[in-house]
Amino acid sequence: MSFPQTIDIEIIGSVNIYLGFLLQVFMAFLLGGLIGLDREKKLKAAGIKTNVLICLGATIYTSISLLNDGEGQTAYDPNRMAAQIVSGIGFLGAGAILRGPGGGISGLTTAATIWVVAAIGVAIGMGYPFMASISTIGILFALTLINPIYKLFSVKREFAVKILSNK
After folding, report:
1. Does residue 161 lie within any of the structural domains?
2. How high is the mean pLDDT in each 10-residue block of the chain (167 residues)?
3. Which of 16, 44, 98, 101 is the most exposed place for a label (fewest CB within 10 A)?
4. What are the b/e assignments for 100-131, b being 16+ CB within 10 Å?
5. Within a domain: residue 74?
6. Per DSSP, which regions of 11-156 are E strands?
7. Residue numbers of the domain that contains 82
């Protein structure tokens, strides 16, 4: 099995494998941390550490799967690792979704955030850290700006509660 000496990083081009991997790990830490910081400030369950670890894990799995040249395998496809990351992250996200006693559901945004942070990690691991950065900006805009916009256009209804006694 031959070991690659370089990896390709978008915009930068071909770089030493260790320098490239260092850049990928740094970007995963930074981008996962930015999203985690937003969630941490909102006191959500999946904060900085969780989002950094999800992003790092997806980056590492993807990067390592690309290093394997598939020697001796007839149907080698490094994209299969990304598919397995999506499946595995689905279980993590499902654990973040809770059903309350009144039938309400919470944790959907946390689950979706876990899912997209893994996607950012896959993009970084594939060699697209700058594309992942653009995606992170979009995700942060969604996490930050959607609620104020939603509140601006939502219809406020007033309810009256009447308590009746059986006496």
Report:
1. no
2. 81 94 97 97 92 96 82 70 87 84 83 95 96 97 87 70 74
3. 101
4. eeeeeeebebbbbbbbbbbbbbbbbbbbbbee
5. yes
6. 13-16, 98-99, 105-106
7. 6-153
